[in-house]
Amino acid sequence: MTNFLFAHFIGESRLGEQVYFSISKDGNHFYDLNAGNPILISNIGEKGARDPFLIRDPKTNKVYIIATDLQIHKGLGWEHAQEKGSRDIIIWETNDLVNWQGPRAVTVGVAGAGNVWAPEAVYDKNKEAFLVFWASKVEGKHKIYASYTKDFVSFDEPFIFVEKDRDVIDTTIAYSDGKYYRLTKDETSSRIIMEYSDELVGEYKEIHSSILADLAGVEGPQMYQVTDGTWYLIVDQFARNLGYMILETSQLGKKDFVEKLKDEYDFGIMKKRHGSVLAITKEEYEKLLAHYK
């Protein structure tokens, strides 16, 4: 799979907190679909779908989108969203990337949680199930909770997956060379923490990254691998409203990231906020282009 689909939202505006699509043939240059209009709109719950995350079922080839049930534009503000927000995630599913079922909402947040933010998932081959994880504020502190599901309908009892001595949100995971690499946003410093483990649910150890230590004001980390084997880490430069930037490494976890030159990539006309990138086939790329162009 050498092509890519980027699902994202665009900001706190009337239709900004819905799901938008962009596609790419190389992971560097993205083309906005549907004339810059949302592809999927949530009309349930908080009537917003922020931080959309794409994941493919390796057995059925079905693709799911899971998203944050939140709308700030017409909502009650960030404090309310953290203390008395939705405990649901918004879900769509498809067999062909153009005909989507949903949205539907599933409650995953623990009792007492003030929110459920930026849900993501990774397939656990040993359990033949998806580990879904998200940030929740519980007793005044943001931590990452997780739960297993086989079908994105029924979810096991949630458990604490990431907890630090400060608030953390926006966790993402990539698997490479027998190890799991976990990136998480430190809310105190607005920097990204990188860790690794031999097990998906196990002890993670921090990896020092000079560039991540110096890179503040970012969130929404995502990792994907392009055709030549290079790993890309994209982060949303939210503090300066600059959209996404790309960092790259030839060996995830072994060589530090370096910043990709800005003239070597283009995320399209729309300034993109927290989203995810999924590898797709050439046929899927052409189908998306024909359907949404």
UniProtKB/TrEMBL annotation:
InterPro entries: GH43_arabinanases, Glyco_hydro_beta-prop_sf. It comes from the Bacteria. Keywords: Carbohydrate metabolism, Glycosidase, Hydrolase, Polysaccharide degradation, Xylan degradation. One of its GO terms (molecular function) is hydrolase activity, acting on glycosyl bonds. This is 1,4-beta-xylanase. GO terms for biological process: xylan catabolic process. Gene3D superfamilies: Glycosyl hydrolase domain, family 43.
